[in-house]
Design brief:
mainly alpha
């Protein structure tokens, strides 16, 4: 699958994935498998909201949204409107 669209998103997400190592972060990257736990997911959500100036709706704060980098990016880019494309 293609790389994530937004370099800021990749830079923001990588520190929350301690088991990623030298692997490339793609839309299919499973966040839990690479070390994102529930507390970090909350911190990541707050960082994403601050960085992009969006607020993820409560219905998107699910295990599914945080399952892969691509699904999280879809949720974020959906809040950005027409200016961003989902992966």
């Amino acid at each position: 699958m293609a790389d994530l669209v937004d370099a800021r998103f990749t830079e923001l997400l990588t520190p929350y994935l301690p088991h990623l190592g030298n692997r490339e972060l793609t839309a299919d990257t499973p966040l839990r498998a690479y070390g994102l736990d529930s507390m970090q997911a909350i911190e990541l959500m707050l960082s994403v909201e601050d960085t992009y100036g969006v607020e993820l709706p409560d219905e998107q704060l699910t295990e599914e949204t945080f399952s892969t980098a691509g699904k999280l990016w879809d949720a974020v880019s959906g809040q950005l409107g027409d200016g961003a494309d989902a992966v």
